[in-house]
Amino acid sequence: MKQGGNWISACALVACMAGVVAIGAVADAPVAHAADKAATKSVASKSRGTGSRQFSGWVTALDKTTFTVEKRGKQPRTVVFSKHAEMKTAGDLEKDARVTVYYRDEDGQPMAHRVVVKPASRSGSSHSRAEGSSGATRGGR
Description:
With 141 residues, the chain is an alpha+beta fold. It contains two helices and five strands, in the order αβββββα. The protein has a five-stranded mixed beta barrel with strand order 1-2-3-5-4. It is elongated, with a radius of gyration of 32 Å.
């Protein structure tokens, strides 16, 4: 009977050691998989052209290769964008225009790939509202 008990203990010890080795292998696998997945995602995002960011504000300076956009408000920020060779522009890119720039960081420099110029706000609309609320247009009350 003693030999049977020792044999069961030996089997339990072997199974326990195999479990530790298996757990160690499993614990390493997700880390390696996550690193591979991140590397794959990075390569895929560069090849598909995703990963672009956007920045909105007013154009403060403009030349052949760059333009500067300033965000106003509580947390003002100014960004100088380089123009990509195939940059697309919707509207006239000019100084004091309100724009949204779609860009990517390329070698630490924001590279503009698409610029959407917002239409100028119509000052006439506020003027017509002011006329509509004046007492002269209500008639003889």
